[in-house]
Design a protein that fits this description.
mainly alpha; two-stranded antiparallel sheet; about 80 residues; elongated; 3 helices
Length: about 80
């Protein structure tokens, strides 16, 4: 379930990356940061959080086993 939520959040963030609604917004945050740039600052923090959650909940266990040398897949081609 958690893995599915990570995948859904990744798709949602992919869609939200195209912020066409802020192209014409001239609002400045903190007196110097345009609205589109401020949106991408928040977007980047959210993406970093999603990457952390992906490492916790969606990282493939077989990759960890392979890296540790304990992969039980039966492939002895080395």
């Amino acid at each position: 379930m958690k893995r599915t939520l990570v995948y859904v959040a990744a798709v949602v963030l992919g869609i939200l990356h195209h912020d066409f609604w802020l192209w014409e917004d001239a609002t400045l945050f903190f007196g110097f940061l345009p609205a589109g740039m401020a949106y991408h600052v928040v977007y980047t923090v959210a993406t970093a959080g999603l990457c952390y959650l992906a490492l916790l909940y969606a990282w493939p266990e077989h990759a960890v086993r392979f890296a540790e040398g304990s992969d039980d897949s039966g492939d002895e081609s080395e």
